[in-house]
Specification:
With 212 residues, this protein is of the alpha/beta class. Helix content is 49%, strand content 15%. The protein binds adenosine-5'-diphosphate.
């Protein structure tokens, strides 16, 4: 089974993806997490993408597609795509790649959350540098340690108002069209992402039951 999680930055797809992928024994592909990790480690790839990430722009499609193909050439498990695809070109390339492996997408879960609510969440978001868990802390509040692994909590460089606005605009311009793309393939299921975390998990689990 291969699944896409689609929605605004801040719609909660990353939190749900980590949980669901683990529950279902799937691999979690979150290019944003991979790229930020490369930036922090100052690898050649990290240096190459740093300007894109810190200004809220998408990195070039070819680079994301290379990441996908390099990482999963030999992967046999189902993949949960989180934050990918984000452009029509990526969506078409994903379909082609899956079909070259005699596979397909089983479902696309669309996390529906108004833009203003998503932006507000990002402004209050802190993430663990160790395990990636996300928490909420009002802007300016002191940051404690991760309650899951004890790692250090940090705000992301792109979680500041001007860059958040840019990421929202990029979503509207380039990613939102994927809702109708997947609707026309008849595999889109919408969940109400303005609910508490567990209630969203229940909706996602219910949506996936029919394709398991
Ligand atoms: P968010 O969804 O909160 O914006 P992510 O962690 O998913 O954050 O992504 C962070 C950044 O990584 C994006 O702003 C973009 O620069 C880059 N990125 C992630 N996924 C993609 C993608 N599929 N295509 C192009 N760039 C991407």
């Amino acid at each position: 089974m291969n699944i896409v999680f689609l929605g605004y930055p801040g719609s909660g797809k990353g939190t749900q993806a980590r949980f669901i992928a683990q529950k279902l024994g799937m691999v979690h592909f979150a290019p944003g997490d991979i790229l930020w990790d490369e930036v922090v480690k100052k690898t050649p790839l990290g240096m190459e993408v740093h300007d894109y990430l810190s200004s809220g722009r998408l990195v070039p499609d070819w680079l994301i597609l290379r990441l996908l193909k390099d990482k999963f050439a030999a992967e046999k498990r189902g993949i949960l795509f989180d934050g990918f695809p984000r452009t029509l070109e990526q969506a078409e390339a994903l379909d082609a790649w899956l079909s070259s492996r005699s596979a397909a997408l089983s479902a696309v879960i669309y996390f529906n959350l108004p833009e203003a609510a998503a932006a507000k969440r990002l402004e209050g978001r802190v993430a663990c540098a160790g395990c990636g868990a996300s928490y909420t802390a009002p802007a300016g509040a002191p940051l404690s340690a991760c309650s899951a692994c004890g790692g250090a909590l940090k705000r992301r460089d792109d979680d500041v108002p001007a860059i958040i606005q840019k990421r929202m605009m990029v979503y509207r311009d380039q990613t939102e069209q994927l809702i109708s793309y997947y609707k026309s393939n008849d595999i889109l299921v919408e969940v109400k992402a303005d609910q508490p975390q567990q209630a969203v998990t229940v909706q996602v689990a219910t949506a996936l039951k029919s394709v398991l």
